[in-house]
Give the backbone structure.
Amino acid sequence: MAELRYNPITRDWLMVASHRQERPQMPKNWCPFCVGSGKVPDEGFDVFRYPNDFPALSVTPPTPDDVADGLFEAKPAYGRCEVLLYADKHEVSLSQLADEHVHKLSRMWKEVYTDFARDPEIKYIFIFENRGDVVGVTMPHPHGQVYGYPFVPKNLRDELEGSKAHFDKTGKCLFCELLTQEIKDGRRIIYDNEHFTLYMPFFAQTAYATHITAKRHVANIAQMTDAELDALGEIVRDTSAMYDALFNTHFPYMMCMHNAPPSGESDEFFHFHIEFIPPMRSAEKQQFFASSETGAGAWCNPTCPEEKAAELREAIRGRGSCFIA
């Protein structure tokens, strides 16, 4: 079964993809993303786009099952899903890639966004990385993913509505103003380069959650200059290295890239940013998203953002020695 089902209570679409239940755990002696698998270039690669073997969305979706009636609405699961391979080396991680390598990675992100945006049926393009067993990663080879949805997901819709309300009231970009105030306060700023700032937001929902925000007002990655793309690849790599340095371990996280929808209608008030959401509150302790968080949507951060930002500032100072590829 692969279809979309509508929730009229939350006004959101749910992807039903029962075939993904059959996704395998990777055998120890084989990886489809490694050279020699028959699925990637035999001559090796730096970065590479790979069609998802178990896509939740497809450009040729099957007809939904005959279960919709009345308030129950279903439609074909149209869209695109790809895997974005960061390197051909199985053991390397994003945190270890050299500058020239992550420059190619950021250009692949731009390429896939631009490619997906050509399809008028795709309403939102979500580039992300799941890292670590604790967030369900079945393939440890360094990679991210991209989904092209035929709808705007609820979290992004909330961000769009909030930023538009602020723009309508003030005539200013909410994200630009938040970044200015974070920089003025300074306590949660972790690191920056010429074009991006890494910080822990005042309203961080979880321990060690961070945002990367573009200093210039850009709505999506396709609007970035070459210099900005270079800086983006470097600061994403540096953030990953920071998390590894925090507890001297391969620290899991979810990296969520928030671009404006490809329609262009929100470009004036939506601002490109990346959210890192680690599922751990220490090297060994997982932070569980329990009833209040998942049932009510009422988050409780068990840590002080200013204190955790200070820990991350210390961690990022020593990240440079790990770059190897």
In short: The mean pLDDT is 94. Helices lie at 99-117, 154-170, 174-185, 226-247, 291-296, 305-317. The two ends are 41 Å apart (CA to CA).
